[in-house]
Amino acid sequence: MSSPSSDMKAFRELVHQCKSLVVLTGAGVSAESGVPTFRGAGGYWRRWNATDLATPGAFHENPSLVWEFYHYRREVMASKHPNPAHIAIAECEKRFKRSGRKVTVITQNIDGLHKRAGSNRILELHGNLFKTRCLKCGDVAVNVDSPICEALQGRGAPDPGTESALIPEEQLPRCKVGGCGGLVRPHVVWFGECLESSILEEVDQELKNCDLCMLVGTSSVVYPAAGFAPALAARGVPVAEFNMETTWATNQLGFHFHGPAGENVPEALKP
Ligand code: BJW
Ligand code: ZN
Q1: CB of 238 within 8 A of CB of 13?
Q2: What is the pTM of this model?
Q3: Consecutive sets of 10 residues in the chain, 271 residues long: mean pLDDT of each?
Q4: For binding substrate, which residues are annotated in this chain's numbering (predicted)?
């Protein structure tokens, strides 16, 4: 396929004409808010790669360590704010709604920043950092407690030399449903786990109906999300990638805008 265009004027023309815009986002959309991405220099916590701790095996082996990691990220995230990319996407949704058009955010991020920016139509593919799921009764609950439990207070420091806390399981976050008290885990999707089927059905619907797509700040290596934009492009839907780098998907897409999402996304969505 020929290399993608970087003609912003032509892309903005498509935005003005489109009826249903899907914005697929990854960690790069939050990078300018100060949230580390997964792959690359920022993706380490202590001596672990973040993706090594995002597995059911890691939690099974050492729930204390994995909870320290997530506790750290919850505390960091609570101090971060949406950046101009999140805000431009949320404002575009409101503007589109007034003329009977729609914007849907399909995000791999668990940081909740799209919602905090004011987006309403959001599908969170990989869950949410501020939700827990009970391993005993399955209850899913919103949880913004800080710290999430007493034993994690002051724990989770990211420096490579930090000693692990080795918190006994009964002192880790527990289910608040009356009488349950089971161990809870972060309500996020780890490698090898299935994405929620109801969300995948909604995603299918949105992808089927959309007539324009923006792919923002993702390395496009993690499936199933990595397949969404190339599948749209193969169907003839125009897709624009916004990234600091090219990815394996770039050459299958119609547009590529090189550079920080916080600059290029607002430019692309200017009223
Ligand atoms: C900027 C920027 C700026 C920076 N502006 N840009 C098919 C083929 C092969 C394997 C599989 C397959 N189907 C499924 C699999 C297995 C696996 C998988 O995909 N493995 C691959 C690694 C090969 N997938 C799964 O296991 C998924 N489950 C599943 O499919 O179940 C069924 C099944 C299972 C097994 C086999 C087959 C089927 C589940 C995936 C769950 C991913 N979970 C994580 C952790 C979530 C919780 C947490 O956060 O702790 O999700 S992993 C991590 O990666 C996280 C992210 O959402 C995800 C994607 O990362 P993302 O967002 O792309 O971030 P980065 O860091 O990679 O990239 C950032 C980008 O931003 C870069 O490109 C930068 O350049 C850019 N950037 N600053 C613009 N300012
Ligand atoms: Zn429970």
Answers
A1: no
A2: 0.97
A3: 90 98 98 92 88 95 98 95 98 98 98 98 98 98 98 96 96 97 98 97 98 98 98 98 97 98 98 91
A4: 70, 73
68 lies in the same domain as 25: no
269 with 144, same domain: the answer is no
248 exposure class (CB count in 10 Å sphere: 0-12, 13-18, 19+): exposed
- Residues 210 and 148 occupy one common structural domain: no
H-run or E-run covering 66: helix 63-78
Mean pLDDT of the chain: 96
Using an 8 Å Cβ cutoff, are 117 and 86 in contact? yes
Of all ligands present, the nearest one to the C-alpha of 174 is 2
CA distance 109 to 30: 8
Q: Which ligand 1 atom sits closest to the C-alpha of 26?
A: 62
How buried is 79 (Cβ within 10 angstroms: 0-12 exposed, 13-18 middle, 19+ buried)?
exposed
Residues with CB under 6 A from ligand 1: 26-28, 31-32, 37-39, 51, 54, 108, 110, 126, 188-195, 217-219, 221-224, 242-245, 247, 260-261
Its domain, for residue 205, covers 1-35+82-126+195-271
Q: Tell me: the pLDDT tens digits for 228-248?
A: 999 999 999 999 999 999 999
Q: DSSP E strands: which ranges in the chain?
A: 20-25, 44-45, 48-49, 102-107, 122-124, 127-134, 140-142, 184-188, 212-216, 239-243, 255-258
